[in-house]
Structures are given as structure tokens and as C-alpha cells.
Specification:
17 strands; about 15% helix
């Protein structure tokens, strides 16, 4: 799959989507509405009251009525590896970097219900071809495909269906010799594929490296991706059940295709308009500790356009996380403003197609996440800051991208 097809298929990189995002995380994907006091208020004596301090809160908890919260996250994502269809890790052949932010607006509509608006913004994106990595990939995992890419054009030029079905002669030998492939030792009538494969490893390595270098030079002419507004997301969250230990919430939302996609090698949007469903389950096993499961499922409801035709996503996108959060004030009161969260996140995406032709396989990815939270709520300061690290664990047909997210949250009362 080409670099352009790969990014088209995945949309914004998972770490951004998960943060907003594409996730994978804290931003728009997670329309988290936590209960928190206004600057001049104290927390409501609400269900799950035994949670202790307010630094960590249930993920499915909505904002109190009339309370507004603003998020400003900054996401730094990078990587140079990928998982293949069997889950094996290998080089992409490029150094991928994404820097993005967003404005997230939340509002407590009524008791037990919140509204959220997410506007992600991509500051920079790039996929700079890396010769060393690209050469390693071409010489190992993609060796057969690389040789095919070298010989197929010659076979086509001589009217053959493939290199394996193209018998060589003096004319073919001369054409390949002009490109640095000396197959004169092979007898006439030998297939082009067999003649090339019969060359020494030293010769083939040099030919492959020359081909890779040409590809790297061409790719780096257009290494920078799109910047600007991503896909705007809107949604609501409703608490259905809550007591001293359990909370269950559901939500629904819409991802609008406002990001750049059609003519972009590295887009800022997924290209389609999707409707989504969200489920939250929070459990309080002990004071100052919360176990949370959050799950999202999105389904395309309107196709998009790309340079090659109509773009559609087949099947739903399912993603979420399982986390355990602990308020360090449970160890000592002097640490009541600090919270620590550890978790596991997942992302399963469907196949992308242009006019019915697949341009990318379905994918999956799993990440570990660690979040450190510092909150001013315990001291009457209406805000908090979070630092989150997401590390790839496994996947299939997906990029290996680590991300660091710094998020500032501010609370207002209207």
C-alpha cells in the first residue's frame, strides 16, 4: 500500500484521532464530561461520593448544569515503524511527525447531561522518507515486491503480462543493461524474473538501493501533509445510572467531514461523515480509585470524495480504553492535587474503498497509556493540566506511533 493510500485509509493519525482523536486518548474521541465545581462552588454531594478528592473523576460523569469547561490539548506524535497484516513490526521507510491542538467546549445542559464540541487543528504533519529505513525494508520484508516493481515495467514494455512470463532476448538484455542490470549470463528464453533473481546478492542489493534512493528523492518533494482544521465533532452524554460504586452513561455524536481530505496525501480528516455511539462504565473499588471502561463505535453515513473517485469506509470503527485511576491524596493529603492513571486502549478500523476498490485493509492497534494529572480543584483553582504518554503495543496494518499529549482544562460557571 502506498504512502498516500495508507494515510488516506487511516485518516488523521490514530494518536490525534484518539486524542480528539484520528485518538488514540484525550481529545475529541473522548467526549469526556467529568463533574467538577465552578470557581466559587464545591462539588455536588453526588453519587460515587466516596471517590474522595476531585483530581480524578469518573469518565462517564457529566458536568453539573450550567458549568462550562474548555480544553486546550497539544499533541506530539512520531514514529517510523508499522505493523503488517500478520502483526509483525517493520520499518515504514519514513519518519512520521504530527503536531496538533484543538479547542474543546463542554457544557452541562441539565442534571446528568452534557454537550461537547471539538474542533481539532493540525499545526504540522510530515512523512519524510528515510533512505536507511526504506532500503532495509526493500531488502528484507519487501524484497520480492521491490524486484517485481523493477522488472514489471520492462515486462509491460515488451508486451508481457508479467516478468515471469517474459522470455529474454538480446533486446531485453540491452534494455536492462542500460539500467544497470546485466543479465547477459542468462540464456535467451529464460524468463525475465528468473534472470534477475539469478543475479548475485551484491548486484541486486545495489540495484534495489538505487531504486530506493530514487523513490526517497521523489517522496521528499511532497513530504509535508495538510494543516488546518480537522473533522469537527459534536455530541451529548447522558448518565443513566449512578450509585456509590457504579456509574453507567451513554452518548451519541456526529463527526463532520470538515477536515482536508480530497487531494491530500496526508489529510486532516477521515473523509467521511460518521455517526457515533459512546458507552461508559465506571466502578469505584475503593476510595480515591476509579476503574473505567470507555467505548466508541462510529459508522459512516455519508461518503467522501478523493482524487480517484468516491471514498467509503466499510464496517464500523471501534475504539476505547480500560483505565485505572488513583488520586495520590490517598497516600498523603499533601498530594491531593495529583492523580495517576494507567490503561490500555484499542482501535479497530474498517476497510477504505475508492469506487469499490480497496485502498487499505482493515486495521487494529493497541496502546498502553499513562497519565499524570495536576488539578487545582482541591485549592479552589478552576482548572487542571494533564500529561499523557501513549505507547504502541501491537497492531495489524497500522502505524507504530507514540504520542505525548499535554492538556489544559478550565472550568467556568455561567
Amino acid at each position: 500500500m502506498s504512502r498516500i493510500q495508507s494515510f488516506k485509509k487511516r485518516g488523521p493519525l490514530k494518536s490525534l484521532v484518539a486524542v480528539c482523536a484520528l485518538g488514540t486518548l484525550t481529545l475529541g474521541q473522548q467526549a469526556i464530561a467529568e463533574e467538577a465545581p465552578a470557581a466559587d462552588a464545591t462539588p455536588e454531594a453526588a453519587p460515587m461520593a466516596k471517590a474522595g478528592y476531585n483530581t480524578i473523576l469518573p469518565k462517564g460523569k457529566t458536568l453539573p448544569e450550567g458549568v462550562t469547561r474548555l480544553w486546550i490539548p497539544y499533541n506530539m506524535t512520531s514514529g517510523n515503524e508499522e505493523y503488517d497484516a500478520d502483526g509483525n513490526k517493520g520499518k515504514v521507510g519514513a519518519d512520521i511527525k504530527v503536531n496538533a491542538s484543538a479547542l474543546v467546549f463542554e457544557y452541562g445542559i441539565s442534571k446528568g447531561m452534557s454537550f461537547q464540541l471539538v474542533m481539532p487543528y493540525y499545526l504540522s504533519q510530515s512523512a519524510e522518507a528515510n533512505f536507511a529505513d526504506a532500503a532495509e525494508k526493500a531488502l528484507t520484508t519487501d524484497r520480492t515486491a521491490t524486484l517485481a516493481s523493477i522488472t514489471t515495467p520492462f515486462a509491460t514494455a515488451f508486451g508481457c503480462a508479467s516478468a515471469a512470463e517474459c522470455p529474454i532476448n538480446a533486446t531485453v538484455k540491452g534494455a536492462l543493461a542500460a539500467q544497470g542490470l546485466d543479465i547477459s549470463a542468462s540464456a535467451d528464453g529464460t524468463s525475465l524474473a528468473d534472470a534477475v533473481n539469478a543475479l548475485s546478492d551484491t548486484v541486486l542489493t545495489e540495484v534495489i538501493r538505487s531504486t530506493v534512493q530514487a523513490g526517497v528523492d521523489a517522496a521528499n518533494v511532497d513530504k509535508d501533509g495538510a494543516t488546518g482544521l480537522g473533522d469537527i465533532q459534536i455530541g451529548v452524554l447522558k448518565e443513566l445510572y449512578s450509585d456509590d460504586k457504579f456509574m453507567f452513561s451513554v452518548g451519541a455524536g456526529l463527526r463532520i467531514a470538515t477536515g482536508k481530505f480530497k487531494d491530500e496525501a496526508i489529510p486532516t480528516g477521515r473523509g467521511t461523515t460518521d455517526i457515533g455511539l459512546r458507552l461508559n462504565f465506571d466502578y469505584l473499588p475503593m476510595t480515591n480509585m476509579i476503574v473505567s471502561w470507555e467505548h466508541y463505535s462510529e459508522q459512516m453515513i455519508q461518503s467522501g470524495k478523493t482524487g480517484g473517485g468516491t471514498y467509503k469506509r466499510v464496517g464500523p470503527k471501534n475504539y476505547g480504553d480500560l483505565t485505572v485511576a488513583y488520586n495520590l491524596g490517598g497516600l498523603h493529603d499533601s498530594m491531593k492535587a495529583l492523580g495517576l492513571t494507567a490503561g490500555y486502549s484499542y482501535d479497530y478500523d474498517g476497510e477504505g474503498r475508492v469506487d469499490g476498490v480497496a485502498v487499505g485493509s482493515s486495521s487494529e492497534a493497541a496502546y498502553s497509556q499513562v497519565v499524570l494529572t495536576a488539578s487545582g480543584l482541591e485549592y479552589g483553582v478552576p482548572g487542571s493540566i494533564e500529561i499523557e504518554q501513549n505507547t504502541p503495543m501491537s497492531g495489524k496494518n497500522s502505524k507504530v506511533l507514540a504520542s505525548t499529549v499535554v492538556t489544559l482544562k478550565l472550568y467556568l460557571k455561567f
